[in-house]
Design a protein that fits this description.
Structural class: alpha+beta
Shape: globular
Distance between the termini: 11 Å
Largest sheet: 7 strands, antiparallel
Order of helices and strands: HHEEEEEEEEEEEHE
Radius of gyration: 25 Å
């Protein structure tokens, strides 16, 4: 396919830009066109995507997941809820690929305090692939101007002070426990990250580091969960 495109590029170019009569100039232009097509041939682009893992947790398939727990939230089964914990997913026998992509929905439940300081925070959440941290951030569900603790997301902690719920996909989801009567007590975020990857084995991990010395029921105070986890491999040409 790419070879045909390169030949077509040369053909169209020759029609638009006639070659000069001078033999040396003709040689130079032909050499330039050949070089440009070789350069284009070296460029890599998406060639083949393959979904190697998908889980909405409705069928209770928790294989390959360590630390797996499930709960029922907003008419759906989710992975979690977690508080001072998390999970790790490991896959093997992946097809040949150059890039791996992870996508999932992250739910931040109840009274997260973002970049707050003791005794309220910071409330940190991390996502890593193959031992490399891709997200190290904080989330805040607080309502301004009353207890307006900023969050770091969509940037990493401590690099930024963003408004609570900044970057959220939805902010109109009900709370779970402490804020179960609040119709806006949960925020959801769509997380997508890619990394260069060629190994037939892959691992990803999500954990939190929540600071809550001022509450007895910490899981009720703050928690998080994950849904619609999809992993794709991408083979580049």
């Amino acid at each position: 396919m790419y070879a045909a495109r390169r030949l077509k590029f040369i053909e169209i170019t020759l029609r638009i830009v006639p070659l000069p009569t001078n033999r040396f100039c003709r040689f130079c232009i032909l050499l330039l066109l050949l070089g440009s097509t070789l350069f284009l041939s070296c460029r890599k682009g998406p060639q083949q995507q393959q979904t190697v893992y998908t889980n909405n947790f409705e069928n209770a398939d928790l294989s390959n997941i360590s630390g797996a727990i499930t709960s029922f939230y907003n008419q759906s089964t989710v992975l979690g809820r977690y508080n001072k914990g998390g999970f790790e997913l490991k896959l093997k026998d992946l097809p040949r690929h150059d890039v791996i992509e992870v996508t999932f929905d992250l739910y931040i439940h109840d009274s997260w305090d973002g970049n707050g300081i003791l005794p309220d925070g910071p409330d940190i959440w991390r996502f890593s692939m193959e031992g490399n941290t891709f997200i190290n951030t904080t989330f805040s569900n607080k309502v301004c101007p009353f207890t307006c603790f900023p969050q770091s997301y969509p940037f990493n902690y401590l690099n930024s002070n963003q408004q609570p719920k900044n970057g959220a996909l939805r902010t109109d989801l009900p709370g779970v426990c402490l804020w179960e009567t609040d119709p806006n007590g949960t925020s959801s975020y769509s997380i997508t990250r890619r990394m260069s990857h060629k190994s037939p084995a892959f691992s990803m991990r999500c954990v939190d580091e929540l600071v809550q010395p001022n509450t007895a029921d910490q899981l009720c105070d703050e928690s998080w969960s994950v849904d619609n986890l999809v992993i794709k491999t991408i083979l580049l040409d």
